[in-house]
TrEMBL record:
Pfam families: MGH1-like_GH (PF22422). Keywords: Glycosidase, Hydrolase. This is Mannosylglycerate hydrolase MGH1-like glycoside hydrolase domain-containing protein. The lineage of its organism: Bacteria, Bacillati, Actinomycetota, Actinomycetes, Kitasatosporales. GO terms for molecular function: Glc3Man9GlcNAc2 oligosaccharide glucosidase activity. Residues 51-442 form the Mannosylglycerate hydrolase MGH1-like glycoside hydrolase domain. GO terms for biological process: oligosaccharide metabolic process; protein N-linked glycosylation.
Length: 465
């Protein structure tokens, strides 16, 4: 056995066995146990009941946490997802587990019909997936996973294998999804943005006639209270959009819903910076990707920055103009290292001001404006606080020198994650658990927060005036 193979085998054995775990009652051990319970052998489900398949941006966040307990599993998590990538470059938002009954989740594989309706777009034939996408956190996750154990990554050829797929994923978003012509990616369904039920979607969704409620059965209500979930009317509109997209054979640009979202594009920019780091690791130059990230940052500011609101707003491509709703998505560009100082400072002020109340009236940033008419502290993405958006904000605060605020947010997230049994989301005022518990990305990001802060990406860095 050559040295590379020996190294791979030795580190794989270490990953399977783990180092001696912390005390059984520690946050580290509890979070690691959740990920172990939700591990399928090749990927991690968000939760065993409500979400029994592999979700795209969930897996990216899960890999970021898994790298601290098993770099091999973290690499496998991303590799499994990318194995389901379509020929046109899209990474589907769900990869279905064939052993799960069809009625366990809706929309199920027989709704999406990926292998037939997605044939022209290059959908894989050996695995069933959805046809829509989710935010592109994947290159960022891959770079962080590599840096957790560079030796193992190099021995397995991890970056060599995932880089072309990640580059194709970004090409798809930057070309096929540039529906507004400004160089930014559009989402064609609220589920793609990840913050499914946000009031930011209410206005563009009004254009969409809902599918009849008798035409589908909502499996989500088997696991969550109706008052915490999207309404039947909104769900009917989600189903209509997905049906039309499927029946159009997943061709982009034809639907009634097309929105440029600040968080989606900020994560794409962050991942472009990460791809630059990956390119350098592989012996190429990352200059072109850094330059692209800078162009996208400028486009994001030009297209979605609203000085009057003190934050970024969604841009409705179909109707034209900004959507006047303050969602947590509009704070996520704080993640970007080259955001102008004045914009970064204004975003911090908005996060800690009356609309989000961070550190004053709320423990974690709510998903929607506390003063908005549609605010609800318990209903899915219409007010509750989520740990992934908290994690992104904590990193953004550190990136822009707000270390004390970042540390306070980190401590609040760790406290609430453990107290809520790693809840899917929580009441932003009280921290009471909402949705399901023992949720994988909450556990994974808890693990990450327990470790020292690392730079999210290699970049030319720093703020610019």
């Amino acid at each position: 056995m050559d040295r590379t193979a020996q190294l791979t085998a030795r580190r794989a054995d270490r990953d399977i066995a783990y180092d001696p775990p912390p005390a059984a009652d520690s946050p580290h051990a509890g979070a690691a146990r959740v990920l172990e319970e939700n591990w399928t052998g090749t990927s991690t489900v968000p939760s065993r009941g409500l979400y029994p398949h592999q979700w795209s941006w969930d897996s990216a966040f899960i890999a970021i946490g898994l790298r601290h307990v098993s770099p091999l599993r973290a690499q496998t998590e991303l590799e499994t997802l990318l194995d389901a990538q379509w020929g046109d470059g899209r990474v589907p938002h769900i990869v279905f587990n064939p052993s799960v009954p069809l009625d366990a989740y809706f929309p199920s594989p027989d709704f999406w019909r990926s292998s037939t309706a997605g044939r022209d777009a290059g959908a894989p034939r050996t695995v069933q997936t959805s046809g829509i996408v989710q935010p592109p956190v994947h290159a960022l996750a891959a770079w962080l996973v590599h840096r957790a154990d560079p030796g193992l990554s190099r021995a397995r050829g991890f970056l060599t294998r995932v880089y072309p797929r990640l580059a194709a994923w970004h090409r798809y978003l930057l070309h096929r999804r540039d529906l507004g012509g400004a160089g930014l990616a559009s989402v064609v369904h609220p589920w793609e943005q990840g913050m499914d039920n946000s009031p930011c979607w209410d206005a563009p969704l009004r254009r969409v006639p809902p599918a009849p409620t008798r035409s589908f059965r909502r499996a989500d209500l088997d696991h969550g209270a109706a008052e915490d979930r999207p309404t039947d009317l909104d769900y009917g509109r989600y189903v209509r959009l997905a049906t039309d997209y499927r029946d159009g054979e997943y061709a982009d640009g034809q639907g009634l819903f097309a929105v440029e979202d600040p968080a989606f594009n900020a994560l794409l920019i962050a991942s472009e910076h990460a791809l630059a780091g990956i390119a350098r690791e592989l012996g190429a130059t990352g200059t072109a990707r850094h330059a692209r990230a800078e162009r996208l940052t400028a486009a994001l500011i030009d297209r979605m920055w609203d000085p009057a609101s003190g934050m970024f707003l969604c841009h409705d491509v179909r109707a034209g103009g900004l959507i006047p709703e303050r969602g947590v998505s509009g704070l996520i560009p704080l993640l970007l290292p080259t955001l102008p100082r004045d914009i970064a400072a204004t975003l911090v002020g908005t996060a800690y001001g009356p609309h989000f109340g961070l550190g004053r009236t709320t423990r974690l940033a709510p998903s929607y404006d506390l003063l908005g008419e549609a605010f609800d502290p318990h209903r899915y993405w219409r007010g509750p606080a989520w740990f992934n958006t908290g994690w992104l904000l904590e990193r953004g605060l550190r990136t822009h020198g707000e270390r004390d605020r970042a540390e306070a947010l980190r401590e609040a997230m760790l406290d609430l994650a453990v107290a809520s049994d790693f809840a899917e989301y929580v009441d932003p005022y009280t921290g009471k658990a909402c949705g399901t518990t023992r949720f994988s990305w909450t556990a994974a990001l808890t693990l990450d927060l327990l470790h020292d802060f690392e730079e999210l990406m290699d970049s030319k860095g720093g703020n610019r005036g």
